Each structure stands twice: as structure tokens, then as C-alpha cells.
């Protein structure tokens, strides 16, 4: 693996899931691999899990870690080619990415979408520019349209908890007071089509995700119908893709409750708004596996970094 920008960078998903589960029981087995190597964790947006678990993963592999919040701690970055930089931005990505590449062996980056410019967001300008101008591998820690480390985590978690060969997995939209990106549901939907599960998506009409990503996954507009016989329920809010970035529905009845999920395991990428997205009774029950899921962020990141380190001189 050279870069980890999206799930297409995974050669063999079953092997990578097995590797992550194996690292979980023996996290320091490859400590020599990252010796004298440094990862730079660069954030344009807030994070709890991604920041700490990726740092932990890198340290488990023997790497040093440098972290920077780019928006608050660094110069404003310019991404447009040929721009006259006489306004807010002080440094061009061409210099920034080249310079950072001299300090670190891997760049990991978080850059959320604007949710106002669909075309620009789908171009993935920030992460693609880093890939273009950096001379070291780039890892996606959630970009405008994808959160592949989260999706790998989710696949690991389902593999660990499943009670049958081909469990039923439902991705359910849930209410939220703010307009949220599509990265997590996009990557989850893509991942569920890479592993052996019976997958469907439920959301109010008008919340269809990018059809190029959801592919042939069934969409069931009736949440109760979709949740029937579910083994795993994955709740997530996202804003409208069609009316890009808008909140079209605030229907509180889409909140996940125990009555709705029945005996299914409950998953969410976190952070989650209690009693808006999901009721306390679910998160506080033993059907919720969100804490175990978050723990797997470390081993997902570690499996990916290990693959990349094999190709770093
Ligand atoms: N799930 C996730 O990416 O969490 P953070 O935003 O806290 O990193």
C-alpha cells in the first residue's frame, strides 16, 4: 500500500481485517517496523478518536508522532494553482506539502467538506493536493467524502461480533440539529459492499447518498421495515446530498430506540448526540458496541500504517 486515501487502496479486505484483529492481541509485534520513522497528524477539523487512536497505532509500531491543528496553529494554506495570494492565505500547498515531507515519513490528514460547494468537495482538493505535492505517503483521517479508517474499523467490529456467517446490517439515518457530512455513511456503505453481509440503508426520502457509492444496496424508506431482523444497526446522520448540505428532515421519530432495534447490536462512529440520534436506553444497554467499536480504531489504523511502512525506505 502506497497511500490510504480511500477503500480502493485496500488490496484484500479479509486479510487486512485479520491483520487488525491479530494486532489487537499482539499490538507491539511490529514495534521495530516504525523505528526512526515519524508520522505527521494534520488536522483542519476537530477529533477525539481519530487523533488519539492514530497516534496510539503509530506508537504501537514504534513511530514518533507530530500533531498539528492546521487551522489554528499554522499559516492559512492556498490550494488554487496560479492564485495571486494577496488575501487571507499565506502559504501555498506546493511549499507546505514539500516542506512537511522533509519532517515526516507519513502524512495523515483530516479535512472536512464545505457542504456548500458539491463539485469542489467531490474533487477532494485538500487531500488530493497533499498527495500531489507531498513526497511521502498520505493517509485519509476523514476527507470531504470518505472516512476509510472508520469503515475499516466498522468491518473489524462486525467481524468480531457477528453470530452468523452473513449478518443483516442496516445503516439508518437519524436526526441531528446540524448539517453533517457524507463521509462516514459513504465509506460505511462502500465497505458493506466489500464484505459478506446482507446490507440495506434506511432514510427519509430526499436523503439518498451518492448513488455511485451506494451502488446496488437496497434503500428502504420505511425505517421499521428496514430494521426487521437486523443483527447490526448503524446509526448516522447526514445532510441531503441532492440538495447539497441542507437539512431536509428533522423528524424526531427517526431516533433509534430499543423498541426499534430489538435484539440488534448498535453501532455509531461517535461522537453521538444522546436522545437525538439514539436514546440513552440503547447506548446504556449491552446491545451498544460503540465503545468496543471505537477501540478498534487503533487496530484499523495500525493495520493500515503497517502496510504503508512496509514500503517506506
Ligand atoms: N469517529 C471519529 O472519526 O471520531 P473523531 O471525529 O472524534 O475523530
Automatic annotation (TrEMBL):
GO function term, MF aspect, one = N-acetylornithine carbamoyltransferase activity
The record's catalysed reaction(s) read: N(2)-succinyl-L-ornithine + carbamoyl phosphate = N(2)-succinyl-L-citrulline + phosphate + H(+)
User: What is the top-level taxon of the source organism?
Assistant: Bacteria
Top EC category: transferase
The signal peptide here is none
Q: Give me the residues that bind carbamoyl phosphate, please.
A: 47-50, 75, 110, 147-150, 269-270, 297
Q: In which pathway does it act?
A: Amino-acid biosynthesis; L-arginine biosynthesis
Listed A to Z, the keywords are: Amino-acid biosynthesis, Arginine biosynthesis, Transferase
Positions annotated to bind N(2)-succinyl-L-ornithine: 142, 176, 236, 273
Q: Where are its TM segments located?
A: none
**What InterPro entries does the annotation carry?**
ArgF'-like, Asp/Orn_carbamoyltranf_P-bd, Asp/Orn_carbamoylTrfase, Asp/Orn_carbamoylTrfase_sf, Asp_carbamoyltransf_Asp/Orn-bd
Q: Is the Amino-acid biosynthesis keyword given for this protein?
A: yes
Q: What is its EC number?
A: 2.1.3.11
Aspartate/ornithine carbamoyltransferase carbamoyl-P binding domain location, by residue?
Answer: 2-160
Domain (Aspartate/ornithine carbamoyltransferase Asp/Orn-binding) spans 184-306
Q: What does this gene product do?
A: Catalyzes the transfer of the carbamoyl group from carbamoyl phosphate to the delta-amino group of N(2)-succinyl-L-ornithine to produce N(2)-succinyl-L-citrulline. Is essential for arginine biosynthesis.
Subunit details for this protein?
A: Homotrimer.
Family label:
Belongs to the aspartate/ornithine carbamoyltransferase superfamily. SOTCase family.
HAMAP family associated with the record: SOTCase
Q: What is this protein called?
A: N-succinylornithine carbamoyltransferase
- Top-down, what is the taxonomic lineage of the species of origin? Bacteria, Pseudomonadati, Bacteroidota, Flavobacteriia, Flavobacteriales
Amino acid at each position: 500500500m502506497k497511500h490510504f486515501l480511500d477503500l480502493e487502496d485496500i488490496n484484500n479486505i479479509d486479510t487486512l481485517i485479520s491483520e487488525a484483529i491479530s494486532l489487537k492481541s499482539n499490538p507491539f509485534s511490529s514495534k521495530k517496523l516504525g523505528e526512526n520513522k515519524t508520522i505527521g497528524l494534520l488536522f483542519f477539523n476537530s477529533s477525539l478518536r481519530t487523533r488519539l487512536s492514530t497516534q496510539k497505532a503509530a506508537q504501537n509500531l514504534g513511530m514518533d508522532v507530530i500533531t498539528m491543528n492546521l487551522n489554528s496553529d499554522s499559516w492559512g494554506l492556498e490550494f488554487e494553482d496560479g492564485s495571486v495570494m494577496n488575501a487571507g492565505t499565506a502559504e501555498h500547498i506546493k511549499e507546505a506539502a514539500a516542506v512537511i515531507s522533509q519532517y515526516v515519513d507519513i502524512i495523515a490528514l483530516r479535512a472536512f467538506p464545505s457542504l456548500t460547494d458539491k463539485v469542489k468537495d467531490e474533487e477532494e482538493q485538500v487531500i488530493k493536493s497533499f498527495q500531489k505535492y507531498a513526497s511521502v505517503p498520505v493517509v485519509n483521517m476523514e476527507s470531504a467524502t470518505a472516512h476509510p479508517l472508520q469503515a475499516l474499523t466498522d468491518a473489524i467490529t462486525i467481524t468480531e461480533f457477528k453470530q452468523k456467517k452473513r449478518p443483516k446490517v442496516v445503516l439508518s439515518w437519524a436526526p441531528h440539529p446540524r448539517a453533517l457530512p457524507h463521509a462516514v455513511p459513504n465509506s460505511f456503505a462502500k465497505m458493506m459492499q466489500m464484505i459478506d453481509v446482507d446490507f440495506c440503508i434506511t432514510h427519509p426520502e430526499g436523503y439518498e447518498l451518492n448513488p455511485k457509492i451506494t451502488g446496488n444496496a437496497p434503500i428502504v424508506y420505511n425505517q421499521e421495515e428496514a430494521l426487521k431482523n437486523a443483527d447490526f444497526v448503524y446509526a448516522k446522520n447526514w445532510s441531503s446530498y441532492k440538495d447539497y448540505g441542507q437539512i431536509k428532515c428533522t423528524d424526531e421519530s427517526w431516533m433509534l430506540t430499543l423498541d426499534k432495534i430489538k435484539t440488534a447490536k448498535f453501532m455509531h462512529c461517535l461522537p453521538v448526540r444522546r436522545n437525538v440520534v439514539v436514546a440513552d436506553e440503547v447506548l446504556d444497554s449491552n446491545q451498544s458496541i460503540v465503545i468496543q467499536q471505537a477501540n478498534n480504531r487503533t487496530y484499523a489504523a495500525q493495520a493500515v500504517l503497517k502496510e504503508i511502512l512496509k514500503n517506506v525506505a
